Amino acid sequence: MQFCAYPIRNFLSHGLLLFVLINVSWITGCKETFAPVGESQDVIVPFSIVSVFQNSGSSAASIQLKLPKNFTEDFKVTLTSKTGASIALNAGTTEAVANFNLRNYTAGQLSTGDDYTLTLNYKDEQKNSISTSRHFTARQTSVWKMLAHAPINSGDYTGAALISPLFNSQIAIYRYQDDAKWDILKYDGKWLSSESSLPLPRHNAVAFPLGQEGGRELVFVGFGYLTDENLPGKRAYLNDFWWVPSITYVGQSAGVVFPTFSGVDRRVKFFLTFGNVFMLKEDFTGAMESMEVTWDRKDRKPLPEATGKLATFTINETGYVINQISGQPPHLYSYDQIADRWEREADFPGISRVEGEGFSANGKGFFGLGIDKDGNGLRDIWAYDPVKNTWTYHSEYPGQGNRYLVALSDKTKAYIGWGYETRPTEGSAVKQQVGCTDFWEFNP
Question: Which CATH number describes the domain made up of 272-444?
Fold first, then answer.
């Protein structure tokens, strides 16, 4: 897995000028797809359906729309039953966040188990008529709790997210703002934003904490890719990895992990145990490498099949990988780190997809979202029981995004949100990619 070396970059760490050789591979003609990058994002916020939320019962729904900052009332939102009957919507509060507004509605008199369609019609900046819709079934969704929207209006709508089990489950996200700086967002009931230039900002980075005896942990961040407007469609993958003393210092300091990794020429996915991270590349052979909190690394037994798109989670120190290959049922594997052994588990029974998201909570694994073979966004969430080795449908994700979301697993709950919504528009074969800012607590 060797590839060409790119020019040396200089980094400042703990007051010392470090010269780090970063291997970069310019990839062309890859089959993988990428989240829209920051420099291509239009900061004009499109009208969007953010959520359909039924936490108080299946007969009522809370609905939230995202509107441009200087919006007019030249839009229409309607709710209809499966027979086409119109359901009354009651307009509520409007809240200003960053460069957008949130308009809330409520609907009542829904019938449990019936299907409904919420439709939003508006005109875009070019006066084109746009129609987008959300289909849902009337079911109570009390496991979901809406949290504060992120005040994002440029850059990436996803990031390298981590949650600290040793520091009161603090959440921090490295979000690509532009080529010069990260937007470091920490969540404590609200989003607090700061800027950092360490390490070099990039798309699709990974970040995670590793535990250490004595009540300490280290945070690691790195990998990802760069883009260049002069080389459209190409990505330069980075193999550098950095460490931070704890989540408290994310965005304030960083030191380089030596030696640098080799062969990082694709997206990297990982799962964690207390003291180790296990890393695999997507669309590759299945090779896996682990790293301890002491930086010691070793090759591990590869996944028994070549990888497609990956989703991962951990349950009781056992790692799980969901291998998503287009047109095939997603395959689930469990990994025993002591025996260095993989086991094939029950295949995912839902719709075949790629870019699905995985996380764990309260002793079970969860998987869903992503896009189907036709590029349509999905929002179903399924639960995996490791004792019974069975999958069951759990609930619909009430939020907006369906791919490239951030997902964080805590001891008994999870946090998920942001990302991009892949949505069709009426009368067009083109699917829009809309950046999302909503964030949710999942407490099964």
Answer: 2.120.10.80
